[in-house]
Specification:
By secondary structure, this protein is an alpha+beta fold.
């Protein structure tokens, strides 16, 4: 489960580009909390704290409690706009979460028990097709990562979403196909021996 982050905020009294520029000069980042069948709430947050939370690597998969006016709003970060040159955050969007809401997130994958894969033990290479899975999760059960067991997989095998046991409260956002997450391909030495054939096949497929 990803950590819950806390982000103190203040309401924005004025809208518009001029007001936003003034906030940024003071080290603040304009932001909006929206959704949950309520009016959007214009806020601003401390730039340094936002940058620190972005640096955790799981900011967009974390519940962020925005503290404003003595209240805590449970939110999910949806977007952060950055300056094209300085890379400073210019604006942030947060989705307000209701008690029983579900969220659409991208969760990174990790591979376990590689020593128990015959294909990898023989020198095969794990070719990762998807580094993240698109999941629909209960808002308070967002996994930090999805561990995928490669025990028993050999060269030429593919690991599909059907091989993965997702944690309680999570399901795949893609339901119309059994998509590939990774494949185990032959060692480079073996591939080079078969290179002429594969080139011919690739040329005919193109």
């Amino acid at each position: 489960m990803s950590d819950t982050l806390t982000l103190p905020a203040e309401t924005r009294e004025r809208a518009g580009k001029g007001a936003s520029r003034a906030l940024r000069r003071d080290g603040r980042v304009p932001a909006v909390v929206y959704g949950g069948n309520e009016e959007p709430l214009a806020i601003h947050v401390e730039e340094k704290l936002l940058v620190r939370q972005l640096g955790t690597g799981h900011f967009f998969n974390s519940i962020v409690e925005v503290e404003v006016g003595g209240k805590k709003l449970r939110t999910l970060p949806k977007d952060v706009a950055f300056h094209p040159v300085s890379d400073r955050p210019l604006h942030a969007d947060f989705l307000r979460l209701s008690k029983d809401s579900t969220v659409h997130v991208n969760v990174p994958v990790a591979f376990a028990n590689e020593e128990a894969s015959p294909g990898l033990k023989r020198g095969g290479v794990l070719n990762i097709v998807r580094h993240e899975l698109e999941l629909v999760c209960e808002a308070d059960k967002i996994p930090e990562e999805i561990a995928i067991d490669v025990t028993g997989f050999d060269v030429g095998d593919s690991i599909h979403i059907s091989h993965v046991t997702l944690p309680a409260g999570s399901k795949s956002a893609i339901t119309d196909r059994d998509f590939t997450i990774a494949t185990i391909v032959a060692p480079s030495g073996l591939r080079s021996e078969e290179g002429d054939n594969s080139k011919t096949e690739a040329g005919s497929e193109a």
